[in-house]
Design brief:
Layout: E1 10-13, H1 20-28, E2 33-37, H2 43-60, E3 65-69, E4 75-76, E5 85-87, E6 92-96, E7 106-108, H3 114-117, E8 123-126, E9 131-138, E10 142-149, E11 151-153, E12 158-160
Parallel strand pairs: 1-2, 2-3, 6-7
Antiparallel strand pairs: 4-12, 5-11, 6-10, 8-9, 8-12, 9-10
């Protein structure tokens, strides 16, 4: 008895590959599934990319599935005014639930109750763990941290806090 295994080529479509011409080339190169990361981009941009995929699929007479990757619940920092900013080891940095333009002093967060969820001594990781903060002081709106591991920081990067339970709903 012979078992046939079907392998699919999945391509993530991003800013560098979202034009009609690039998508057509990907299809001609064997793309079976176009993956869109819905954690980034606007509804309008995703709509345009889906139209490009559909049109290129029709033109090449190839069937292409569209995979929508929905981001799970994630706490992020807000907008940084002039990016990137540089967080220096040993300096103070404030995470706040107030709407403030982000800079080297601090930045807003997307989870308003974050100051109530953390405690003094907790470690907070930013930008996929590349930056590390330690909580030094708390107010009802602010988390005052010391930068343990510094580096460049840009807008909307993720926040990770190990061993903290967050009540964040996700799309199901």
């Amino acid at each position: 008895m012979s078992i046939m295994i079907k392998t699919k080529i999945v391509c993530t479509i991003g800013p560098a590959s979202s034009s009609y011409e690039k998508i057509e080339k990907l299809i001609q190169g064997g793309m079976d599934v176009a993956r869109l990361n819905f954690s980034h981009g606007s509804h309008e941009k995703h709509h345009q990319v889906i139209e490009n995929i559909r049109q290129a699929s029709l033109k090449t007479n190839e069937s292409v599935a569209i995979l929508q990757d929905l981001g799970g619940p994630k706490i992020r920092i807000g907008k940084i005014e002039k990016e990137p900013i540089l967080l220096k080891e040993g300096s103070s940095f404030i995470l706040t639930n107030r709407e403030v333009p982000g800079d080297e002093q601090g930045v807003s967060v997307t989870f308003p109750s974050l100051p109530q969820k953390v405690k003094k001594g907790d470690y907070i990781f930013l930008a996929d763990g590349t930056l590390e903060l330690k909580v030094k002081e708390l107010t009802p709106t602010d988390i005052i941290c010391r930068v343990v591991r510094g580096g460049k920081l840009t807008s909307r990067k993720g926040i990770n806090i190990p061993n903290i339970s967050m009540d964040i709903s996700s799309l199901t």
